[in-house]
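On clarity, I found the account of how folds are encoded harder to follow than it need be. Since the whole study asks how a given chain folds, the encoding of that fold should be made plain. For the editor and my fellow referees, an illustration may be useful. An entry of this sort, consisting of the sequence and the corresponding backbone structure tokens, reads as follows:

:::
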Amino acid sequence: MLRAPVAAALVAAAFPAWPEEAPPLAVDVPVTAAVTGAGLALWGAMELAKGELTPSSCRWCTPPALDRRVRAAVVWPDRRAAALLSDVLEFALPASLAGADFFSAGRDLRRASEDVLVAMEAVALAAAATQLAKSAVARRRPATWATGVRTGPEDDRAFFSGHAATAFAAAAAFGTVARMRGYPAWPAVYAVGFGVAATVGYLRMAADEHWLTDVVASAAVGTALGMAVPLLLHRSPREGSWTLAPLAGGAAGVRWVLRL
């Protein structure tokens, strides 16, 4: 009974406040590619070193009552099926959004490639942030908590969900890029992207890999990075000009006029 409300809550919590007027997008391809590569490199290095980075016992071992109640309601009998579906959707979502962006860009390969690069920059940063959080928090996964048997460092890396964080980052980034480019379908990109991302988060709970609070944190971090990367790092430079204009009291002065 909780499955649909949980998915709806994740979408509602992560859906962005649409700006009244978004700035145009500007992409410095070498710099963006370097940031993306650095994020992926950090993610890969920390994934390889997770045995050394994760403490030998959990730092956050006992879940709150809300997490326990939600787990009991949403976990699937076939947890492997839920995990497999989450894996498929994690990769299918950005690939599908990239394909839709290509057509929104008028089949302009260069423009579409820039859009995808910006979105992947956000995804890479979300993946790196996930690794940092997993190592620092060392939260016990629900399946391991239920059995009480720890088999390795991965059992204490629940907070927060990498699947959900990267899915929400992709949804937010592609939607924000489409908004900044002026593509008419940008509301649909947000709606479909966040809907699929919420499904990924639900499936991670159904697979008994993550708690509700893990997924909520993933949605918040992924959405924030997905929107912040285009809006803060890829705004077109503002234009301004100096004009000579009278100031209050009739005195002459110089005024800076800013054009967005």
About this structure: The longest strand covers residues 239-246. DSSP finds ten helices and two strands in the chain. Residues 193 and 212 are 20 Å apart (CA to CA).
